[in-house]
Recover the amino acids of this structure.
């Protein structure tokens, strides 16, 4: 597992409560990776290589950016007026659940391509107390994934 920290803004389109306002979080994303074999050194994937790949993608697309739902024209319009403008359009609301899902299903296969390793679980912490995660349901037979969220008491 490699942990990556980043800052991003978002709003939950149609939330009806305070989360539909622009705001941001200091996110923590945990990437759980598996491989079928270890190399001669004993690694599934070098931690520094894993970091370079997933952090590289996050730095380029999400860090210090706004995550916006594709149907949220109002937010896209507003953010487009800011110069320089930086936002990332997602096919669903940018909840922690959907961010974990996107990282697991869209980002990781691309970022880990050619390494022989694959992400089987991504956990996105929105606060110190709350995370959501997406995971590959059956790690050998299918690519079905599920999403869950949890709030813990510290
Ligand atoms: Zn939020």
């Amino acid at each position: 597992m490699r942990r990556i920290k980043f800052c991003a803004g978002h709003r939950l389109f149609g939330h009806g409560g305070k989360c539909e306002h622009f705001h941001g979080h200091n996110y923590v994303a945990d990437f759980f990776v598996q491989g079928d074999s270890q190399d001669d050194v004993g690694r599934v994937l070098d931690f520094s290589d894993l970091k370079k790949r997933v952090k590289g993608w996050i730095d380029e697309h999400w860090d210090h950016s706004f995550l916006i739902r594709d149907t949220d024209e109002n937010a896209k319009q507003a953010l487009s007026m800011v110069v320089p403008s930086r936002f990332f359009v997602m096919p669903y609301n940018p909840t922690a659940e959907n961010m974990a899902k996107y990282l697991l299903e869209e980002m990781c296969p691309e970022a880990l391509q050619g390494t022989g390793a694959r992400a089987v679980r991504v956990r996105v912490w929105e606060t110190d107390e709350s995370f959501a995660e997406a995971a590959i349901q059956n790690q050998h037979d299918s690519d079905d994934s599920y999403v869950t969220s949890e709030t813990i008491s510290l």
